[in-house]
């Protein structure tokens, strides 16, 4: 069992949640979302995000608008839809619970040690 | 030094080195193949291209700078290898799939392998599925075909039902190779290499290995003649049907050409010969002119007929030619319409001429000349026909027979044989002969004139009446149903003897006051009041026809049927039968049989 695969799978699970979270307050275009995620070391390569964005958009959680750019092609600015906001809220709750659970489990182990 | 390529990436223009371009293209192609249309492939690719364009823009300081392989590598490292895209691929599946990277036996699916096919790739697909060489499957098919032909049906069924392996993913699944980006990219790379290998550059010939690719190219070359790489069963079926339709069409075309050409040639020959006849006046063919009472020039009628019949056949010929030769030049709208117009004009003209011709027979008028002949009751009158050597119709005449010939004076005359003899009884003491001449014309005056123009002669010599067997008239009068009816009014109790030569001019039966029928020739006939009796007829001349119960006597013979006997006398012989004796006399001899 490769450590890389496990890591990737763990990251993958939260990636959707993170993308939605980035867009929680402000609309952003792909490079901005990527910047945030890369800074957080959640993403190594950019390619991963595109199918994901398209999928979220197709699911009606995201929408986008075009904006001209001074350097390069026009940019797609993504934003949350109403459904997306509800979806995010629910994910938020789930994440909190999960985080709690993980903390409890891991801290338990350390105390036992 | 490097060759550069101009590309448009998300609407932005870039100069790019050729090798860098190829690498970028391969990269994008690999990504493209890792998605399906349902995942929004085109949109994802557009987004990725836009991002790559953005990244390039950041790296290009001025418009003249060229994207090199270094920049492409950088961008690829930022965007991630094709494998990295696949990480998200699982997210798309709502149900968790067995992980590809697990080393369990990869699942195989049945597809048609159109790249290694002879007909539709069913066999090679099955070969991949069962992991054996396709040649064994093909041999099995051949055996099945000989086994009552079920193979063909099964093959067609599989052809319809089994999908063709189109995408790289499907091709990998067909061969049971794990579907991961590395494999996909490898396949695409192989495809590119094989394209470079085959200068012809057929299609992206994806194969397992480069060495294999070369081998398969050979197979393809051999197979190309009988297949095209991605065909469905129905395409081929449609082609076969179309092929037969085409052959049928060509066949019809040939028939049309033959019919059209034959008719046209016949018409042209006909027109030519008629035209020649009209100019140089070949004797005998003047008959056409004689019947032509409407006085329309023959050449005009024949020309009109030529157009009226020839033009439709010309179009038939043209149609056949057009079916046979696909890119035949059109004869042009003007030509078509003028031919159509000419045809219509010809038809109209012919109809007008036809009406005029028919009009020539609108009036039939009679001219009657009566002459008394010194024949009284109790006299015996002989009647004979006189023939003309020039116009020798013999005894058998035909009513509409006519002929142009030179008469005794050297002039031309129409000879016709429309002669009829009627015999009527009269109470007068002396016989009368009435010559009733008639002719057709478009008006009363012309008709009566034509009737008068008929020459007909008879002569009484020594109590023998000589009647001409023909009538003559001047050719100017044309042949317009000129007829002569000879009505003989014979006093009662006069005996007449019609010579055999009159037979065909007499009515075949007695009616309407006609007392002598053609059956009475060569017999002395006594004229009675509205009837006649035969004086020298033998029994056989009597018309006997008895048809009673048990007895039947007529022309065929005698048949008598009694309770226990049977007699039959006819042309075959005599046959007499009773319960006990049988007598048979015929060409075989006499045969008598008795019961005991």
TrEMBL record, chain A:
Organism listed in the record: Algibacter mikhailovii
Residue stretches making up the Transcription regulator PadR N-terminal domain: 19-89
Record's protein name: PadR family transcriptional regulator
Domain of life: Bacteria
One protein family per Pfam: PadR
From TrEMBL, chain B:
Positions of transmembrane segments: 139-162, 251-277, 297-321, 333-355
Keyword terms: Cell membrane, Membrane, Transmembrane, Transmembrane helix
Compartments where found: Cell membrane
Domain Phage shock protein PspC N-terminal: 108-165
Cellular component GO terms held in the UniProt record: plasma membrane
The UniProt record lists the keyword Transmembrane helix: yes
Domain (PspC-related ToastRack): residue spans on this chain: 406-539
Domain PspC-related transmembrane region: 220-360
Protein name: PspC domain-containing protein
């Amino acid at each position: 069992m490769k450590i890389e695969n496990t890591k990737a799978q763990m990251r993958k699970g939260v990636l959707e949640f993170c993308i939605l979270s980035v867009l929680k307050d402000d609309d952003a275009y792909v490079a901005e979302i990527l910047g945030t995620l890369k800074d957080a070391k959640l993403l190594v390569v950019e390619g991963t995000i595109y199918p994901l964005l398209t999928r979220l958009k197709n699911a009606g959680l995201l929408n986008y608008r075009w904006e001209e750019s001074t350097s390069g092609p026009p940019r797609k600015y993504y934003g949350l839809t109403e459904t997306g906001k509800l979806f995010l809220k629910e994910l938020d709750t789930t994440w909190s619970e999960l985080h709690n659970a993980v903390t409890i489990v891991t801290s338990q182990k350390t105390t036992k040690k | 030094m490097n060759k550069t390529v101009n590309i448009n990436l998300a609407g932005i223009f870039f100069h790019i080195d050729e090798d860098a371009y190829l690498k970028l293209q391969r990269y994008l192609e690999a990504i493209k193949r890792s998605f399906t249309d349902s995942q929004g492939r085109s949109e994802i690719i557009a987004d990725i291209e836009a991002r790559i364009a953005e990244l390039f823009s950041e790296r290009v300081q001025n418009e003249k700078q060229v994207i090199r392989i270094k920049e492409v590598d950088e961008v690829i490292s930022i965007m991630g290898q094709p494998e990295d895209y696949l990480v998200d691929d699982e997210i798309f599946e709502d149900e968790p799939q067995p992980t590809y990277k697990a080393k369990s036996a990869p699942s195989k699916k049945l597809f048609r392998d159109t790249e290694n096919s002879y007909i539709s790739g069913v066999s090679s697909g099955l070969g991949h599925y069962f992991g054996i060489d396709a040649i064994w499957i093909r041999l099995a098919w051949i055996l099945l075909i000989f086994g009552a032909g079920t193979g063909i049906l099964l093959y067609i069924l599989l052809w319809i039902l089994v999908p063709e392996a189109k995408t790289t993913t499907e091709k990998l699944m067909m061969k049971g190779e794990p579907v991961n980006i590395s494999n996909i990219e490898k396949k695409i790379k192989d495809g590119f290499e094989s394209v470079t290998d085959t200068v012809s550059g057929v299609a992206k010939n994806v194969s397992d290995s480069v060495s294999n690719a070369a081998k398969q190219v050979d197979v393809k070359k051999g197979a190309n003649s009988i297949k095209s790489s991605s065909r469905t069963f129905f395409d081929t079926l449609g082609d076969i049907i179309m092929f037969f339709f085409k052959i049928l069409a060509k066949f019809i075309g040939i028939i049309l050409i033959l019919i059209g050409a034959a008719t046209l040639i016949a018409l042209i020959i006909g027109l030519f010969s008629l035209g020649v006849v009209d100019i140089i006046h070949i004797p005998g063919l003047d008959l056409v002119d004689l019947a032509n009472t409407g006085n329309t020039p023959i050449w005009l009628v024949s020309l009109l007929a030529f157009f009226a019949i020839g033009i439709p056949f010309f179009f038939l010929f043209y149609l056949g030619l057009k079916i046979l030769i696909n890119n035949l030049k059109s004869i042009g709208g003007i030509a078509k319409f003028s031919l159509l117009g000419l045809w219509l004009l010809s038809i109209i003209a012919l109809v007008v001429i036809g009406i005029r011709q028919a009009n020539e027979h609108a009036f039939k008028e009679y001219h009657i000349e009566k002459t008394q002949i010194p024949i009284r009751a109790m006299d015996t009158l002989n009647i004979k026909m006189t023939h003309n050597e020039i116009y020798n119709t013999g005894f058998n005449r035909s009513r509409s027979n006519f002929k142009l010939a030179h008469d005794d004076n050297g002039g031309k005359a129409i000879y016709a044989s429309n002669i009829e003899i009627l015999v009527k009884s009269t109470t007068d003491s002396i016989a009368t002969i009435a010559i009733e001449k008639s002719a057709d014309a478009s008006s009363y005056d012309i008709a009566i004139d034509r009737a008068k123009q008929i020459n007909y002669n008879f002569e009484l010599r020594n109590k023998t009446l000589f009647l001409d067997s023909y009538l003559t008239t001047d050719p100017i009068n044309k042949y317009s149903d000129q007829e002569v009816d000879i009505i003989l009014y014979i006093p009662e109790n006069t005996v007449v003897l019609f010579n055999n030569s009159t037979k065909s001019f007499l009515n075949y039966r007695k009616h309407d006051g006609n007392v002598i029928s053609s059956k009475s020739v060569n017999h002395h006939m006594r004229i009675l009041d509205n009837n006649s009796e035969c004086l020298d007829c033998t029994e056989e001349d009597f018309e006997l026809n008895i048809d009673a119960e048990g007895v039947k006597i007529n022309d065929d013979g005698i048949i008598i049927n009694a309770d226990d006997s049977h007699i039959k006398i006819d042309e075959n012989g005599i046959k007499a039968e009773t319960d006990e004796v049988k007598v048979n006399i015929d060409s075989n001899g006499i045969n008598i049989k008795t019961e005991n």
